[in-house]
Amino acid sequence: MAKDLLGADYYIVESSRAYWSISQYKRFRECEERAVAELAEEWTEDRDSTPLLVGNYVHSYFESPEAHEIFKFENGSTMIAKTGATKCHLKKDFKVAEVMINALKTDKQFAEYYIGEKEVSVTGVINGIDFKGKIDCLNIEGGYFVDIKTTKSQIDDLAWSDEFRTKMRWFEVYGYVLQMATYKELLYQKYGKEFIPIIYAVTKESIPDTRAVVFQSDEKLKYELAELSTIISKLDAVKKGISEAILCKHCNYCKSHGLTDKVEIY
C-alpha cells in the first residue's frame, strides 16, 4: 500500500527524505552529520517529548473532536499519571494544556480568526528544491493562515539567540518567522495570491495570555526566505550524499560518537 507522505504519513521518515520542511532545515543547521544520521534512521534523539505533546494536544483539540480523541487514545499512556496523587488523571503539563485550550476557547478574537480548513498540507519549490508544510488553519477566501504556538514565557518576553548573540522575540529565535515566510511562499505558488501569516500565541501559565501576531510587513519574511534560498542548495547536497556533512562537535550525536574537539588551545 502506497504511503500518503503529505497526509497520514506526513511525519514518517520517508516523507522527510522526499521533502524538506522547516523543522528539518533547522536540524541540518544545528548539526548536518546528526541530521543525516536521523534520516538514515541511525540516530534518534533522546529528548523530552512532553513540550511537543502538549502543543499537539492543544492543536488536535482545535483541529476536530475526532482528531483530539484519536490523539488522546494514542498518547494516553504518556499523558495519564500511573502513580501518586494524580494517578489515573492527566499529568501536570497536560492539565496546563487544558487551561490553554480553555483560554483560546474563551478568546472571541481567536474564534473569529480560526476559521477555515484545518491541518492543510502544502508543497512547493524553493530554489529548485521540494518543500512541504502543514498549516494549522487556512482561510483561502480571507487570504490568511493561522498557526497556534504555545510558549512557556510571556508573549512579550525575549529569548537568547545563539546565532545573533543577542535577545530577540521568542518566535524569531525558534524559527517561527521563517516558518511563516515559507508557508506564505508555498501558498503563493499554489494559489497565485498573497496570504497574511498569523501566529496565535498562548502561554503555558496558570492564567494563560493569548495574542494574534499578525505579519503585515514583508521585510522580515523576505529576509528569512532569502537566507533559506541561499543556504538550502548546499544542505540539499549534504542530504543527498553529494557533499560531506559538517559536524557541530557539541551535540549529543557528536559526543556519543567521539566527534567533539579533544584539544583546546587556551
TrEMBL record:
<dbReference type="GO" id="GO:0005524">
    <property type="term" value="F:ATP binding"/>
</dbReference>
<keyword id="KW-0378">Hydrolase</keyword>
<dbReference type="GO" id="GO:0004386">
    <property type="term" value="F:helicase activity"/>
</dbReference>
<dbReference type="Pfam" id="PF12684">
    <property type="entry name" value="DUF3799"/>
</dbReference>
<dbReference type="InterPro" id="IPR011604">
    <property type="entry name" value="PDDEXK-like_dom_sf"/>
</dbReference>
<dbReference type="InterPro" id="IPR016974">
    <property type="entry name" value="Uncharacterised_phage-assoc"/>
</dbReference>
<keyword id="KW-0347">Helicase</keyword>
<protein>
    <recommendedName>
        <fullName>Putative exodeoxyribonuclease 8 PDDEXK-like domain-containing protein</fullName>
    </recommendedName>
</protein>
<keyword id="KW-0547">Nucleotide-binding</keyword>
<keyword id="KW-0067">ATP-binding</keyword>
<feature type="domain" description="Putative exodeoxyribonuclease 8 PDDEXK-like">
    <location>
        <begin position="21"/>
        <end position="256"/>
    </location>
</feature>
<dbReference type="InterPro" id="IPR024432">
    <property type="entry name" value="Put_RecE_PDDEXK-like_dom"/>
</dbReference>
